[in-house]
Amino acid sequence: MLANTDCVKCHAQQPKEIEANGAAHKTQIGCQDCHTGHRPSSPNNIPQCSMCHDGQEHFKLQGCTGCHNPHSPLQIVLKGDLKAPCLTCHDTQNAQLEANPSKHTTFACNFCHAERHGVIPECVQCHKPHSEQMTQGDCGKCHQAHQPLVVTYGADTPNASCGACHTTAFQLLAASKYKHRDVTCVTCHQDKHKTVPQCSDCHGLPHAEGIHKKFPKCGDCHNIAHDLNK
Ligand code: HEC
Ligand code: HEC
Ligand code: HEC
Ligand code: HEC
Ligand code: HEC
Ligand code: HEC
Ligand code: HEC
Ligand code: HEC
Ligand code: HEC
Ligand code: HEC
Ligand code: HEC
Ligand code: HEC
Q1: What's the pTM?
Q2: If DSSP codes are grouped into helix, strand and coil, which group holds residue 18?
Q3: Is the CB of 35 under 6 A from ligand 1?
Q4: For residue 116, what are the β-bridge partners?
Q5: What pLDDT score was predicted for residue 48?
Q6: Among 12, 15, 35, 89, whose Cα sits 20 to 30 Å from the Cα of 122?
Q7: Nearest to 147 by CA among 95, 110, 193
């Protein structure tokens, strides 16, 4: 009869792995809960995971030991292109990717969440910012990784971030003498990219009715919002 403490006399590696990173396979079970018997009398003493893990979507996967070394079960090295296995635990991220098709939708999850479980990449590992002033900290103001083409933004987004692409609007407004200069881009173009406001959203119809009838467009007298130079 063998005790769990005997194994190390002939097998150096597995006890060392379990000691270091055995997780619940160290604290809740011993060698012989998995390895029942020993050769030569028990020629196959390698356990099936399903002996103890059953009843969840994740446990229906093939090839458990391709991801988990049973002696260090949480030291997971992610190999190949993985998506379906991730979805056994994370379906909301994929739902978002599918509902908002972009190039990101076509990638495996571990194209971005690479090597180890739970790694979060920075956008700037793969993309250049829109301007030199912009950093990783800004990306999340406008984009989310799982729906990158749905651009939304908060009230704290600085004009310079929009100005990275809209140089004309940015420069006209900054040079303007009129009070719109002190209004931010996102105060007028609220929340969602490409929203364009009506002047009357903020000002109503400020002049006499007859004037608005005769000149229905504010721009007839006020030029454009970025440059109220009339
Ligand atoms: C006296 C030395 C000795 C002790 C003690 C010992 N083993 Fe082994 N074990 C061996 C040898 C030799 C093999 C065969 C190695 C080979 O074929 O490469 C082996 C093979 C194995 C295998 C592989 C079986 C397979 O099909 O590949 C497992 C699992 C195993 N031992 C587990 C244990 C466990 C668990 C303990 C402690 C309860 C233990 N051994 C104690 C010598 C020992
Ligand atoms: C959670 C179940 C479990 C526990 C606990 C466990 N093992 Fe294993 N062990 C396995 C599985 C499964 C394999 C086959 C690994 C594979 O196919 O990649 C294995 C393989 C082995 C092998 C064969 C060589 C190898 O790595 O393939 C030895 C020897 C071994 N274990 C020894 C031990 C010893 C000693 C302990 C206790 C210190 C232990 N195991 C604890 C599940 C376990
Ligand atoms: C003899 C029973 C037994 C076998 C066989 C077994 N496990 Fe476990 N495993 C447990 C127990 C008990 C726990 C802790 C409770 C739980 O998470 O269900 C556990 C936990 C785990 C954990 C989480 C570890 C933690 O600390 O949170 C992983 C991962 C795992 N097992 C993978 C495997 C894989 C992969 C196999 C097959 C190679 C396997 N187990 C085989 C009993 C077993
Ligand atoms: C594609 C890689 C992959 C495969 C294949 C895989 N797992 Fe996992 N498993 C993971 C990841 C990633 C986690 C999450 C680990 C964490 O939370 O740190 C995990 C967690 C676990 C856990 C602990 C969490 C829980 O829900 O209890 C157990 C147990 C487990 N796996 C067992 C298995 C079994 C059994 C199989 C085969 C039927 C298997 N795994 C196949 C990657 C995989
Ligand atoms: C067995 C279940 C399980 C599997 C399979 C699994 N995860 Fe996880 N994952 C978790 C748990 C539990 C957490 C921690 C709790 C949380 O933040 O939701 C987590 C967290 C994460 C995180 C966030 C870490 C953070 O800091 O917020 C990422 C990213 C992640 N997993 C990606 C993946 C990828 C990619 C795969 C497939 C290769 C995968 N997971 C497979 C259970 C799993
Ligand atoms: C691991 C690399 C990687 C990471 C990390 C990454 N991306 Fe991407 N992204 C790509 C690749 C590759 C493309 C496709 C480029 C092409 O085809 O020109 C892409 C495309 C895009 C697109 C255009 C989508 C389309 O369908 O046209 C946007 C927007 C985008 N990424 C934003 C981001 C943002 C924001 C982050 C961070 C939250 C991020 N990406 C993180 C690799 C990455
Ligand atoms: C293009 C790179 C990329 C791809 C592909 C990708 N992610 Fe992410 N993921 C990220 C980034 C970056 C974050 C951090 C949050 C953010 O910036 O929106 C993240 C966050 C997460 C989180 C943490 C919780 C959350 O939602 O913020 C989980 C879990 C996760 N991703 C799982 C997945 C799964 C599962 C897949 C595959 C279906 C996947 N991711 C595909 C880049 C990616
Ligand atoms: C102020 C909002 C804003 C910020 C901050 C921002 N983006 Fe964008 N991004 C956009 C808009 C708007 C588009 C264009 C969408 C379109 O063409 O409809 C875009 C497009 C992209 C694209 C698609 C290819 C391209 O260049 O047109 C990538 C990749 C991208 N952004 C990455 C990033 C990264 C990385 C960061 C952080 C360094 C970032 N973005 C910060 C608003 C922003
Ligand atoms: C990555 C570059 C990029 C960034 C950053 C960006 N935009 Fe855009 N924007 C575009 C592109 C490309 C278009 C489409 C241009 C076209 O259709 O002629 C556009 C269109 C617009 C339109 C609609 C124009 C029309 O004619 O309907 C508005 C309004 C707008 N952007 C405002 C903003 C605001 C506000 C910000 C900052 C929160 C911003 N943009 C950030 C690239 C960008
Ligand atoms: C999101 C709200 C908003 C929108 C949309 C908007 N404005 Fe304004 N406007 C303001 C604010 C705020 C002021 C400054 C009021 C103050 O400080 O008294 C202002 C001031 C003005 C002034 C006075 C300028 C000055 O320097 O005295 C004029 C004229 C004006 N707006 C015309 C327009 C016209 C024309 C449009 C459409 C092309 C428009 N506004 C769209 C918010 C808006
Ligand atoms: C027929 C020309 C004309 C039209 C059309 C016109 N405005 Fe004006 N607006 C003026 C003049 C002239 C002033 C006074 C300028 C001054 O006092 O320096 C003015 C002033 C304003 C002011 C500043 C009022 C204040 O109290 O400071 C706002 C705001 C304004 N207009 C908004 C609008 C909006 C919104 C429209 C369209 C619905 C519009 N205007 C259409 C000629 C016009
Ligand atoms: C006071 C409100 C207001 C502010 C502040 C504002 N816009 Fe606009 N923007 C408008 C209105 C209204 C239009 C529609 C054209 C018009 O009538 O002037 C417009 C049109 C646009 C367009 C499409 C037409 C064009 O000129 O290319 C873009 C792009 C744009 N704005 C970007 C910006 C950016 C970037 C900022 C900040 C630097 C900004 N806007 C600040 C109200 C504003």
Answers
A1: 0.92
A2: helix
A3: yes
A4: 77
A5: 97
A6: 89
A7: 95
